[in-house]
TrEMBL record:
Signal peptide coordinates: none
Lineage start: Bacteria, Bacillati, Actinomycetota, Actinomycetes, Micrococcales
InterPro entries, A to Z: FAD-bd_FR_type (IPR017927), FNR_nucleotide-bd (IPR039261), Riboflavin_synthase-like_b-brl (IPR017938), SIP_FAD-bd (IPR013113), SIP_fam (IPR039374), SIP_rossman_dom (IPR007037)
Name recorded for this polypeptide: Siderophore-interacting protein
GO molecular function: oxidoreductase activity
Database matches in PANTHER family: FERRIC REDUCTASE, NADPH-DEPENDENT, NADPH-DEPENDENT FERRIC-CHELATE REDUCTASE
Pfam families found in the cross-reference section: FAD_binding_9, SIP
Location of the FAD-binding FR-type domain: 18-152
Length: 318
């Protein structure tokens, strides 16, 4: 194997797209009151996928007070089958995140975590507990893309086709994904990004093309999503011609997803050629309302709208 930092030519094969990578925390950096960046490192991460944009990964955390269990060298979904077959009390908790950056030459992967405010009387979840005490040397598994796989881009939900006018909208849980998309867009991209964050101090500086306007809405204790919904309404009011051109040729019927029991998730990959593409992600109830506004009320062709319920208020991720 080449040592880190040496140039190499990856040969892509039909090996599984995702792989559980053992990794250790090498740095914990507070970005703002509600965002913390954790850098993970391992020599094998030189082969971690670099397709980026909004690519999803999973992180397996150790059980409280215990060392991280050892996974066999498994590829694809075999790790999940192994985890599923463990006794419940031995299953390490895992959560879904977005890859923020990858530095193969250093064997490093960055993940930005949201530091959630926990209502009085509520319990911090396993990932939140881990983050509160995370320090260099802590071990996890990153279940993420293998750069040596022909399918390493699986888990990316940004599919704008040839759209020339882009809209991104989401809350703080979507900010890492939106940040990745903005970073990776072509320099001549044009559009808007609407992002609701907990406080003004969480208005992070994001790299983005000059033609994309980024609006950060500070919630400051208001109802979750209210500011984002208002910003979307204002955006629609100012882009009537764009909305008109993006309308579907006929009436569309949306399934009424119960966001308390089902997953709200639709990411079209076969959008017709057209000027407009929207990407919405965040709290499921808010995203459902934004989807209804764009697709049902405004009549935007649903093939031009990706929507993802990342989480639900009052409900832990399974």
């Amino acid at each position: 194997m080449l040592s880190l930092g040496e140039s190499q030519v990856l040969v892509r094969t039909d090996r599984p797209a995702y792989h559980p990578w053992p990794a250790k925390v090498s740095a914990v950096t507070e970005l703002s009151p509600h965002f913390t960046r954790v850098t993970f490192r391992d020599d094998e991460l030189q082969f971690f996928g670099t397709d980026l944009l909004d690519q999803r990964i999973k992180i397996l955390f150790p059980l409280p007070g215990q060392a991280l269990f050892t996974l066999p060298n498994l590829d694809g979904n075999a790790w999940w089958e192994f985890w599923r077959d463990l006794p419940e009390e031995e299953r390490a908790p895992f959560r879904t995140y977005t890859v923020r950056d990858v530095r193969p030459a250093l064997g490093e992967v960055d993940v930005d975590f949201v530091v959630h405010s926990v209502p009085e009387g509520s319990e911090v979840g396993p990932a939140g507990k881990w983050l509160l005490t995370a320090q260099p040397g802590d071990e996890v598994y990153l279940v993420g893309p293998d750069a040596r796989s022909l399918e390493s881009a699986i888990g990316i939900d940004w599919h704008p086709g040839d759209a020339t006018r882009l809209l991104l909208a989401g809350d703080e849980t979507a900010l890492p994904a939106i940040a990745g998309i903005l970073r990776d867009l072509p320099a001549d991209a044009v559009g808007d990004a609407l992002i609701e964050v907990p406080t003004a101090a969480d208005a992070l500086e994001l790299e983005h093309p000059t033609g994309v306007a980024v609006t950060l809405i500070a919630r400051e204790g208001a109802e979750h999503g209210a500011g984002l919904i208002r910003a979307m309404d204002e955006w629609i009011a100012g882009h009537g011609e764009l909305i008109e051109a993006a309308r579907a040729p006929r009436a569309q019927k949306l399934v009424d997803v119960d966001v308390d029991t089902d997953i709200l998730w639709e990411t079209p990959t076969d959008a017709d050629s057209g000027e407009f593409y929207a990407w919405l992600a965040g709290e499921s109830g808010v995203i459902k309302q934004l989807r209804r506004t764009l697709v049902t009320t405004q009549g935007v062709d649903r093939r031009r709208v990706a929507f993802m319920g990342y989480w639900r208020i009052g409900k832990a991720e399974n």
